[in-house]
Amino acid sequence: MQSITLKLITAILIGVLVGVGGYAFVYAKGYSYLSNDPRACANCHVMTGQYDGWIKSSHHSAATCNDCHTPHNILGKYAVKANNGFFHSFYFTTGWYPDNVAITKFDRHLAVLAALEQANTGEIVAGDAERIGGRRPFPLANSVCEALAGRFRWWLC
Questions:
Q1: Where do the domains of the chain lie?
Q2: Residue 7 DSSP code
Q3: Are 145 and 153 contacting, i.e. CB atoms less than 8 angstroms apart?
């Protein structure tokens, strides 16, 4: 009898979690983050300023948000999207974020790596990489992955 009650409570809890999570995912347009559409980044009103800035910039015609803010491989791209999506929804739901939204150290590193990768392929000049990161954190590498260290290297490269 106790085993059946425990299974029933577990099934109800899982059902509630899946139901509420599914509803929140659809209501918050979570599916839009699976695309490459920059408008998805502006789903949250906090990012409207960044989106408007991108629309007016020269990057608008050359790059989307994902070109600079996610790794260029499928596993890394969706791992970063999942990580950012979880924390963005957590902070925006709780209101625990600063008024002036700022890029995290990890996401800035991704943007600098993307700029360096584009500089290596000739898509942009090296000076753009310096402006994106504020300064060049490491010399231009033969492979961007050579510049990575730490636990995230396996899915970023």
A1: 35-156
A2: H
A3: yes
- Tell me the CB-side half-sphere exposure of residue 137, using CA atoms within 13 A: 18
- What does CATH list as the number for 35-156? 1.10.3820.10
How distant, in Å, are the alpha carbons of 14, 43, 44 from that of 99? Answer: 35, 17, 13
Residue bearing tokens 């899915």: 155
Three-state secondary structure string covering 34-88: HCCCHHHHHCCHHHHHHHHHHHHCHHHHCCCHHHHHCCCCHHHHHHHHHHHHHHH
Q: Which residue has the tokens 């990161």?
A: 133
Per-residue pLDDT tens digits for 63-112: 888 988 888 888 889 999 888 888 888 888 888 887 777 888 888 888 88
How far apart are the C-alpha atoms of 70 and 64, rounded to whole Å?
Answer: 10
